[in-house]
Design a protein that fits this description.
The chain has 273 residues and is an alpha/beta fold. 36% of the residues lie in helices and 17% in strands. Helix 1 (22-36) packs across helix 7 (217-224), helix 2 packs antiparallel against helix 7 and helix 3 (112-126) packs across helix 5 (143-158). The longest helix has 16 residues, at 65-80.
Length: 273
Amino acid sequence: MTQGPKDKPKLTVLSIFAHPDDEAFGSGGTLAGLVRAGHKMTTVCATNGDVGEISDPALATPENLWEVRPGELRRAMAVTGIPDVRFLGYRDSGMQGTPDNQNPSSLFQAEPAKVDEQISALMDELSPDIVFTHDPTGGYGHPDHVTVCERTTSVVESMTGKRPHLYHVCFPRENFRKLWQLMTDAGITPPFAKEMLDSIGSPDDYVTTVKDVSAYVDVKRASLECHQTQLDPNGPFGKLAPDVMTSWMSTEYFYLKRPDGDDSQLDILADLL
């Protein structure tokens, strides 16, 4: 941690997510606010997003999506204001239970020790004050999200000496319920079945930190729009009224993973932005 103008501490912040665009919905406003407060930011993406959606065949093909999506992330981070963007180079493992889980180049098949070594090297190089990553549910159970959470959390918990404040980015279960109802009321078919509402998302009482990011929601939206291959204007999110989307994107949720369950670690994110 360094001191900036008027002796306000300037933090080093490391975000580690699974795919290009994972940074956007859950933490894009917080990242934008931290940039504008002068903190040093690095975004790390574990995979290249090889088997994500393709909203328009003019943008990418299944064969080159792995090359296109990293470029989308770099453009998104340029909008957010984060020039330091890195990739661990794994193949996207696809949704749970799909054949892509078995690809030997996928993150799901990677040796945990190898992934830990890569993340540990980042910790040693950057010495971050704050680390953001997925929560243990992976939001909706995506194996790459869960793997990145497990490996990042394991590395942080094994550190000796200074350890960063580790925040899991959450999507509260109640928010999925509200979103399902909003879409249903608007005549939009939700991207998840009603039967899933009790099993997807973070438990509501898991959240420790709630941030109002409405001051940065325009930056968040502009950054998200750089992930063009993943944004289907005719999909359920594309059909939501703009003011509904803005409202939904204006609050972000986190869980502070305190070392060894020690409640004495301050929630420094609560005092930022």
